[in-house]
Design a protein that fits this description.
By secondary structure, this protein is of the alpha/beta class. The chain has a single domain, classed as 3-Layer(aba) Sandwich (Rossmann fold). The chain is built from 14 helices and 12 strands. An 8-stranded mixed sheet has the order 6-7-8-3-9-10-12-11, sandwiched between helices. It has a 4-stranded antiparallel sheet with strand order 2-1-4-5, covered by helices on one side. The radius of gyration is 21 Å and the shape is globular. The protein binds adenosine-5'-diphosphate (ADP), iron/sulfur cluster (SF4) and magnesium ion. The site of magnesium ion (MG) has 3 residues, from α2.
Length: 398
């Protein structure tokens, strides 16, 4: 089936979700020896051109990530979790970062939050918030730049809400960290937030503990805590994965509506293309630490130009095809200790024989504009991506 991209014209009802997406889980970290470095072609895309291209909306971005690389030196070798990632997000816009688990979505977003352990992580590249560089800043400076401008919403509210403090007091504290106000003023603000995120009877709920909330209500409480300081950037990491489909739709609807109210930039991390279709303005597909396709949701969902994206779309279960067998992507993502040479997707790619010679296994494809122009980019050596998609992949999507 074809996914309809986010409808930005209305905000009243959440479109039906597509249910859980079947994805192949990655292998446990294995202990093969690190491979020799991959071969690279010299870049044909200049820095200026790339900056222009990696901004599908053309609006002034609030968050700019450029050539971000995150590596973890371990006893088994260096884990290259994020490799040359670039993207940008303007205020009021949602970028979905999508990919199977282990592709580097969370690691890249934690770098934006400045949450990595500095001693165990090597980060290079640039991350700018409202024009201010945060890579390489000492902790105290980072706090100043990031301040209350960035909030993160996680998959598991249990990990962010303290079990021994009432929900209300935790929101009060989160507010008082950034605002020198009395407890009464902060409480008023917390009650407003609980109301805003759709928690009934905020007065009573304020005094309750996290275990007294249902999963969906806990997620709402965490969103209230994340948004209490009116952040310019919200990073939501699989915010609905643990919830059932109905509650999932409500929470996504809430995030959409809050974005309209606060005008924040949202980076939404998910493995679920149904969620992407519902929420995203722009989409970045990650595979093995790299961006493999990037563009507006319209471009990426309706005119995908990379075999991995095709595989993700084909692996979505549909209501109409409930009895049909799903087509999960065969094989597993590579070990990040030992990436394949050439295109990282080549061991799993059903189209690599369509590329002349050994390019898929020897030459890393550049992230280049699709059809030679525009803001839609993909990383693949295939010449006839559009015709293969239209003739072979699209009909299978139904
Ligand atoms: N602190 C760490 N040390 C070593 N490897 C890590 C560390 N954190 C994450 N990784 C590895 O980085 C890769 C990307 O992880 P992650 O960003 O969490 O994936 P996802 O796309 O599922 O969010 C995974 O292979 C993970 O095992
Ligand atoms: S570069 Fe080759 S292996 Fe990689 S996605 Fe394209 S066709 Fe497949
Ligand atoms: Mg993750």
């Amino acid at each position: 089936m074809t996914l309809a991209p986010k409808d930005t014209s209305s905000n009243d009802t959440a479109p039906e979700t597509e249910g859980e997406t079947a994805m192949v889980e990655p292998s446990a970290a294995d202990d093969r020896a690190p491979a020799a470095g991959e071969q690279r072609r010299p870049s044909v895309v200049t820095r200026e051109r790339r900056q222009g291209l990696l901004n599908p909306s053309g609006e002034t971005p609030y968050l700019v990530v450029e050539d971000l690389t995150v590596k973890f030196p371990t006893a088994d070798g260096v884990v290259s979790a994020v490799n040359g990632l670039s993207y940008s997000v303007p205020l009021g816009r949602t970028l979905a970062i999508v990919g199977e688990s282990g592709s580097g979505k969370s690691v890249s977003s934690m770098a934006v939050m400045g949450l990595h352990d500095r001693k165990r992580t090597k980060i290079t590249g640039s991350i700018r918030l409202g024009g201010d560089e945060i890579v390489g800043l000492p902790e105290s400076e980072l706090m100043k730049v990031r301040g209350d401008a960035v909030a993160m919403v996680f998959q598991d509210p249990q990990s962010s809400l303290h079990p021994l403090y009432t929900v209300g007091n935790q929101i009060v504290e989160a507010y008082q960290v950034h605002h020198k106000v009395s407890k009464d003023v902060a409480k008023k603000r917390a009650l407003e937030m609980l109301d805003l995120v759709g928690i009934p009877n905020p007065q009573r709920r304020f005094a309750q503990y996290p275990h007294e909330f249902s999963g969906g209500m806990r997620q709402r409480a965490m969103i209230a805590m994340g948004l209490v300081n009116d952040p310019k950037l919200v990073i939501a990491d699989e915010p609905t994965t643990a919830l059932d489909v109905t509650v999932q739709a409500q929470i996504l609807d809430l995030l959409n509506n809050l974005q309209k109210e606060f005008g924040s930039a949202i980076v939404l991390i998910t493995h679920d293309l149904g969620v992407v279709a519902e929420m995203a303005d722009d989409v970045l597909v990650m595979y093995a630490g790299r961006c493999v396709e990037y563009g507006t949701a319209e471009d990426v969902l309706a005119r995908p130009r990379m075999p991995y994206t095709w595989g993700l779309l084909e692996s979505i279960p549909t209501v109409s095809a409930a009895n049909e067998r799903l087509r999960p992507i065969k094989g597993l993502p590579p070990s990040l200790l030992n990436l394949p040479t050439g295109c990282s997707f080549n061991p799993r790619c059903p189209y690599k024989d369509r590329v002349k010679g050994e390019r898929c296994t020897t030459e890393l494809p550049e992230l280049l504009p699709v059809d030679g122009a525009g803001a839609h980019m993909s990383r693949c050596h295939l010449h006839d991506k559009a015709s293969i998609y239209e003739a072979e992949v699209e009909p299978r999507l139904g």
